[in-house]
Amino acid sequence: MKLSKLVGDRFKETPSDCVVASHALMLRGGYMKYVANGIYSSLPPLKRITKKIEEIIREEMDALDGQEVSFPVALPASLWEESGRYASVGSELLRFTDRNGAKMVLGMTHEEAAVQLVREYASTYSRYPFMIYQIQTKFRGEARPRAGLIRVREFTMKDAYSFHTSQEDLENYYARCLRAYQRIFARAGIPEVVCVASDSGMMGGNLSHEFMLLTPAGEDSIVLCPECGYSANMEAAACIYHTEEGSADGPAAAADGAQQDAGREDAALPAAGREDGSCGSAGSAPSALLPVETPGVHTIEELADFLHIAPSSTCKAVVYQKNQDDSYVVLFLRGDLEVNEAKLTSFLGEAIHPAVITEESGLQAGFIGPVSLHGPEGTTILFDRSLEGLSGLACGANKEGWHMTGLDLKRDCPDAVYRDFAKASAGGICPVCGRRSLTISRGIEVGNIFQLGDKYTRSMHMQYVDEKGNSRTPIMGCYGIGVGRLAASVCEAMHDDYGPLWPISIAPWQVHLCCMRGDNAGVRAQADRLYEALQEAGVEVLYDDRNVSAGVMFSDADLLGVPVRLITSPRNWKEGCVELSLRGDRASAVKLPEEAAVDGVLAKIRELTEALEAKVPERI
Amino acid sequence: MKLSKLVGDRFKETPSDCVVASHALMLRGGYMKYVANGIYSSLPPLKRITKKIEEIIREEMDALDGQEVSFPVALPASLWEESGRYASVGSELLRFTDRNGAKMVLGMTHEEAAVQLVREYASTYSRYPFMIYQIQTKFRGEARPRAGLIRVREFTMKDAYSFHTSQEDLENYYARCLRAYQRIFARAGIPEVVCVASDSGMMGGNLSHEFMLLTPAGEDSIVLCPECGYSANMEAAACIYHTEEGSADGPAAAADGAQQDAGREDAALPAAGREDGSCGSAGSAPSALLPVETPGVHTIEELADFLHIAPSSTCKAVVYQKNQDDSYVVLFLRGDLEVNEAKLTSFLGEAIHPAVITEESGLQAGFIGPVSLHGPEGTTILFDRSLEGLSGLACGANKEGWHMTGLDLKRDCPDAVYRDFAKASAGGICPVCGRRSLTISRGIEVGNIFQLGDKYTRSMHMQYVDEKGNSRTPIMGCYGIGVGRLAASVCEAMHDDYGPLWPISIAPWQVHLCCMRGDNAGVRAQADRLYEALQEAGVEVLYDDRNVSAGVMFSDADLLGVPVRLITSPRNWKEGCVELSLRGDRASAVKLPEEAAVDGVLAKIRELTEALEAKVPERI
């Protein structure tokens, strides 16, 4: 490919709305173009990258005995009604009506379509296990697309579905698939991706893992224990308050946690539930429940200030409403902690949103407490495990302008059942090794795998006949990778100030040939010869044949991020030489006689390939 | 691949709703599964076929200096508003509103997206010409999906867009692209595809061609002249009534044409315009215009019967309404001819539908004639060229229950302008060689190419600066191929009663290895050895390793249509032999010693490949 003919512009300036490097560099480098919010066209360099990623994924899926199929993008709503997701999934599912009035959806994931495809085929045990996969465009009505290809509305995804007759078989396959994913990320150049336990969310099922590239640009919070290697998505991380010795809990310890993400205590933040400052003073001796007048005190921070106590000595109420019927959910937790909405949703089994508290509800916004709480009929009242056994807390009095002090959960809320609804926090207790060692990192989710159990097969009446002639319901696993997001993640992990540093395995080209001063006929002829010879040797070459300054030529080459660079120039040409170097490593530059250039390039490509492959784990 | 593990069932029975062979065989052979009207999932054999077709297309597009990109499936309506197509395209364009209330469409073609992608890039002449293409899922709200993959609502399409600074450059590129298309179809195994002139329809532009596989299963009508090679889609075929000698026209000649498609004269048929029987008696001598009472006579057939004249001696009125404002369009043509709606739409520049004639309109349904016609304001009155110079015709009198005889167009309609609005018919005059030689064939459109001119670049304000510094509007070509439809077309062209006969270039596998009596350990071991050896030699093998009867094994093999077949059996095994044959050619069967089997297979594959390539035209 000659750069003079490559469709797409490159830009010096970073567009103002770019918050992450991959977004900025992929716009600046002519990889993609904005079409609408969260929707991009791919230009040739990105298309070349994603095709290589797709080929790596395909090879690994085939090695898992996967069979490539394709499901429709536009699906009849009836399939999603069978599984129940037509009702349960929110507005991220694009619904429409076709010209004949039939209800349709745009598939954002294809469990239903997979079951529909094999429901009759897989009617006898001898056909199990099997896996089918596709690589396809999907559409998801994201509320807040952001960060370029990291969170988009339209994307290409590999989605795979496996079918099994036993949990053991699913687990064996799941382990092979987990390894295949590690191989895919390593082959694509980011072996550092970590596998973390995750929440299954709207997919259903029991066990799931996410593959996370840890980077400040990520939008997920990952809980890690450097001591024992525990890792989980914040949404799935268990929150522990009592070590085995029974003493880890309490205000001092919790204060660390309160530092993290404290901004969310402000009820005005849209993503958080409506938080209700509840007040009281902490004390270790048993004390009576006493009303305190607290005019104008609504938030936990105001309450703690007003009473001169730590937020961890308060009992906070956070109020949501169920999407389906708008009934209220009031969750009490220790004042210094945050609600983990994924855990709450998972417990409730339905979607929720931050509450709008009306006067008729009987709830006193800002003054809600667990004693004598009279919400409207159908209100769900929940207690986080952080409150279990605590006493001497401040809380709301369920009366405008009043709080209580001296709350003793055991005494005052004898019927409370405690469950884990809080977010893990930095410095918190690791649920595996029990040490106060948790750290929180940001990560980009580049893939996920789920043990779905029988959620889809049961609801969609898929059955097979086992060895004994009995009808049984098979179980499923599903496995996703976003192709564009993976490309952007590699860019996040591998770039410098000037552009991406593409790994040789997915680079748009292997070699970038710069012809400096192409107006010099001798130099031009040398570059043309090299271009020909490299192509004949099967090397993918991008040939910058333009008459532009060295500055433009090198900044464009940096933006295109091709790993091996070959430079011809008047001086080199006079010496019968060319210069070979690696992107992002000027120190690697060597001069080679022209006739050794092709071999030199091939050796470099081999070297880079071998270094990459050395980090790829074996298949199991 | 082992057949025992291949996902998908094969069936003996033809599903009752299949009207074409490819539809039936692809369902019966486990190639695809019905999901919704005009929407299918692809099973592994079809996925393998379409991937091979896509790779052939990609190679030919790259050889045309095409650069692969990808456009979004979901596009903002604003882009289609810029080009004007948001309003002008009907309900086959799927429109929806996203969760934020923004109007969107699902791209059924991507001219707008292509212009949006390169509008800034291609701002100077030096960047021209260039071509970008993608292979992508598209959705089209077909009113009547039919015939399996021939006419679907969701499909994979290669769409390419070229940009030029002169008509000459576009024409040169167009010719190269036309040749590339011929290569694609020949490489896919159907070199017999013909290239016909076509109507540009909603795409706009001047010149366009369609690539047609002639088969009774096709849904397009193709006009062919076996004498001179003229070929055109019915929609675009010029209709000629006068040969150069000036005598070809007249009732006797026209009677042939009237046989074809006569059913459409019934005004009750929904697809046709509202047809209005007009009456009168034909005569060659000038005669006066006279009213005739014709109670209950509404159609041309009734009128001709009533007056004992040929339909070609009548002047027929066909009435439409414009979609945009419902104003009437009254078209007069000779009574034996059919309206070519594509020509009419193209002349009007807007979409039309069969008229609903109300009492208030002033039009007398069944009695409309060209003399003293008083339609409502805004009515468009048109005359087909077939009427030019005719006299002595019967026509409507614009009065309930009355017609006229003795119509002399020159005398009675002195202001009429005549244009070509009629359908060509079998036995009609070839517009190129002038002979009465036209034949009508059915065809499947497997590809199309368009010279778009500046329709999109002008409306979307795409400009470039030429050598002299002047701003100019570039012109475009566009080039489409439906991947799934091509697969189905090959199946239409290449099948027997038992299944498809896939060409080696796109066959799902190259070799089908049948292990007869695999319960015999020796036979099984031989088959296993062959499977291994063939795979090591790089051959794509489908290995039927099941314990099933010969009948099941061979009927499945026929349905899968793999070109080379290898059979192991107890008898062959005892002789140390295997049997090699070609699909659909039992006479080709030969016995080979086991150790010669791999070489034999490779030679067969080579032979089939060379035979195919011999029919592929050179690139230009």
Structure description:
Two copies of one chain form a homodimer. Chain A is built from 16 helices and 32 strands. By secondary structure, chain A is of the alpha+beta class. Helices cover 26% and strands 28% of the residues of chain A. In chain A, strands 3, 7, 8, 9, 10, 11, 12, 22 and 25 form a nine-stranded mixed sheet that branches. In chain A, strands 13, 15, 16, 17, 18 and 21 form a six-stranded mixed sheet that branches. At the A-B interface, strand 1, strand 2, helix 2, strand 4 and helix 5 of A face strand 1, strand 2, helix 2, strand 4 and helix 5 of B.
Give a quick set of tags describing it.
homodimer, 620 residues, alpha+beta, BirA Bifunctional Protein, domain 2, YbaK protein, Rossmann fold, 3 domains, nine-stranded mixed beta sheet, six-stranded mixed beta sheet, 32 strands, globular
Q: Which helices and strands occur, and which strands form pairs?
A:
The structure is a homodimer of 620-residue chains.
Chain A: H1 21-28, E1 32-36, E2 39-42, H2 44-63, E3 66-68, E4 74-76, H3 77-83, H4 85-88, E5 95-97, E6 103-106, H5 111-118, E7 130-139, E8 154-164, H6 167-187, E9 194-197, E10 207-214, E11 220-224, E12 231-233, H7 251-259, E13 274-276, E14 290-293, H8 300-307, E15 315-322, E16 328-334, H9 341-348, E17 352-354, E18 380-384, E19 391-399, E20 402-408, H10 409-412, E21 418-419, E22 439-453, H11 455-459, E23 464-465, E24 471-472, E25 475-482, H12 483-493, E26 495-496, E27 499-500, E28 511-515, H13 521-536, E29 541-544, H14 550-560, E30 564-568, H15 570-575, E31 577-582, E32 585-593, H16 597-613
Parallel strand pairs in A: 3-7, 16-18, 18-21, 28-29, 28-30
Antiparallel strand pairs in A: 1-2, 4-6, 5-6, 7-8, 8-25, 9-10, 10-22, 11-12, 11-22, 13-15, 14-20, 15-16, 15-17, 19-20, 22-25, 23-24, 26-27, 30-31, 31-32
